[in-house]
Each structure stands twice: as structure tokens, then as C-alpha cells.
Specification:
α4 links the parallel β4 and β5. The protein has a single domain, classed as Dihydropteroate synthase-like (TIM Barrel, Alpha-Beta Barrel), CATH 3.20.20. The radius of gyration is 17 Å and the shape is globular. Helix content is 40%, strand content 12%. It is of the alpha/beta class and 284 residues long. The two termini are 14 Å apart.
Length: 284
């Protein structure tokens, strides 16, 4: 009989003995899945509260799109987008993560009530990020990343994607800990879709155990991504992002069964049900 999965926890964040659900709040006009829908801060706050009501454990608020081909925005604009939303959702009792690659944005978001920093560059874009997180003592999501969104797919070349992603994450983990970030506060994310093809994404999902072997909680962010649309394509036409929810829930279920710490999703209800079913199934 297989040993039960060791579900790692993160100090200061929810710990319900199951895979957590992180709801996405995109305060952007150009995100691949829902760009523009919640661009107004009031709309974004209402959306975040709806996700909480549907069962989200955390909310990930981001003001800069990282879709393939996206360019960067000025730091002032990113702050304008995210700070009011972080402030209101935190005041309403939500556990908020700020999705940013900039230490200046992370610092102000933490002061506004955010509980975690989610850096899709894994600390590679802003050299001040690790030091800020270490001083703040906050949980930190460190994602595998190679290049900015505008040309990231040109770096989607691997001999063995699983071993190379794990190796590159190890380097950033060592840097983060050398900077003073407590290891128990670090979450790793294999970076599905970031400098990766569909085949790379599937390989990483199939070997989630190799990512977990790094010794940190694992965040899986597959929601509505292109590789799901490619899998479900009909006649060469991609399944639209808005019609990939059932596939997202399937990934959430399998990720939870594989020991993921959390899944990051755009629609919460289905994945919230899925992780609770997985928890009860595991308890027998």
C-alpha cells in the first residue's frame, strides 16, 4: 500500500489538509483568459468576493499580463491597478497574494494587506525581490521562468524538460534562501506555459513528484492555458479559453491527487469541489 502523500503547508496561510484553491483576479485589459472583464477596481473587488464565496482559499491579484507576447507596463500603472484591489479584498478578510515581478509593487501590496508574493520570474527579473521578501518574512511563490513574455517561447528548448526545470528551480531556491527567505515559506511553481510547449507542460504534470521532491509545496497553474485548448481542438481550431473549464477542473483533481499544495484557477467553483472530493477520497 502506498504511503499517504505528505501535503506540505506554508506558515501564515490556510491549512485545511487538502489542496488549496487560489482564485485569479486579473486587473488587466489584456490577459489571455479574461482580460478587461475586471479591469475596473470595483469590478475586480466584486469578482474576488465572488470567488471567495465559491470556495477560494486565496486570491491572486495581478496587474500585469504575462500572456505570451505581452509587453511590460510602467510600475506606476501596475501599482494603480493592484493596490486598491489588494486593499479592499484584504480588508474584507481575504488571504491575498500579489502577482508581480517587481519588488516595489510587492512591498506596497504587502503594506496594503497582501499575505504572499507570487513572482512568475522566480526572482530573476528584479534583484531586489528576494531581499524584500526575506525582510518581510512573507510566503513566496518561486516559479520556473526563462524569459520575458514578449519572446518567452523562443526559450522553449529542453533535452529533458523535467530534469532541467527542477535543476533551474534548484538554483533559484538556493539564491532565495541565501538571501534570507525561510525555506518553509517558499512555494515552487513549474511554470506551465512559460517557455514551454504543450508536450513540456504534460511532461511536467505527469512528473509532479519530481517537482515535489525539491521539498517545497507546489503550485499548479494550468487554468485555461493553451495546451488544454490544443488537446481539445476540433478540426485544427483551438478550444476557446472560456470553454476550457472542465479540462481545468480535471487538472485540478489530478494535481490534488498528486500532492499539489494549491491550484491557481480563473473559475473557482468546479476546482473547489474537486479538491474537496479528493480530500474525502484520500481519507477513505
Amino acid at each position: 500500500m502506498e504511503a499517504p502523500i505528505d501535503r506540505r503547508t506554508v506558515p501564515g496561510l490556510p491549512d485545511p489538509d487538502r489542496c488549496l484553491v487560489m482564485g485569479v483576479v486579473n486587473v488587466t485589459p489584456d490577459s489571455f483568459s479574461d482580460g478587461g472583464q475586471w479591469f475596473d477596481p470595483g469590478d475586480a473587488v466584486r469578482h474576488g468576493l465572488e470567488l471567495l464565496a465559491e470556495g477560494a482559499d486565496l486570491l491572486d491579484v495581478g496587474g500585469e499580463s504575462t500572456r505570451p507576447g505581452a509587453g511590460r507596463i510602467p510600475v506606476r500603472e501596475e501599482l494603480r491597478r493592484v493596490l486598491p484591489v489588494v486593499t479592499e479584498l484584504s480588508a474584507a478578510g481575504a488571504v491575498v497574494s500579489v502577482d508581480t515581478m517587481r519588488a516595489a509593487v510587492a512591498e506596497q501590496a504587502l503594506a496594503a494587506g497582501a499575505s504572499m508574493v507570487n513572482d512568475v520570474s522566480g526572482g530573476r527579473v528584479d534583484e531586489a525581490m528576494f531581499g524584500l521578501v526575506a525582510r518581510a518574512g512573507t510566503p513566496f511563490v518561486l516559479m520556473h521562468w526563462r524569459r520575458q513574455s514578449v519572446d518567452m517561447q523562443t526559450a522553449a528548448t529542453y533535452d529533458d524538460v523535467v530534469s532541467e526545470v527542477v535543476s533551474e528551480l534548484s538554483v533559484q531556491l538556493a539564491r532565495a534562501q541565501q538571501a534570507g527567505i525561510q525555506p518553509e515559506r517558499i512555494v515552487v511553481d513549474p511554470g506551465l506555459g512559460f517557455s514551454k510547449t504543450a508536450e513540456h507542460n504534460w511532461a511536467l504534470l505527469a512528473r509532479l513528484d519530481a517537482v515535489r521532491a525539491l521539498g517545497h509545496p507546489v503550485l499548479v497553474a494550468a487554468s485555461r492555458k493553451r495546451f488544454l485548448g490544443e488537446l481539445l481542438a476540433v478540426g485544427g481550431t483551438l478550444r476557446p479559453a472560456s470553454e476550457r473549464e472542465e479540462a481545468t477542473v480535471a487538472v485540478s483533481t489530478l494535481a490534488a491527487a498528486g500532492g499539489a499544495w494549491a491550484v491557481r484557477v480563473h473559475e473557482v467553483a468546479g476546482s473547489a469541489d474537486a479538491v474537496r472530493v479528493e480530500q474525502r477520497w484520500r481519507r477513505g
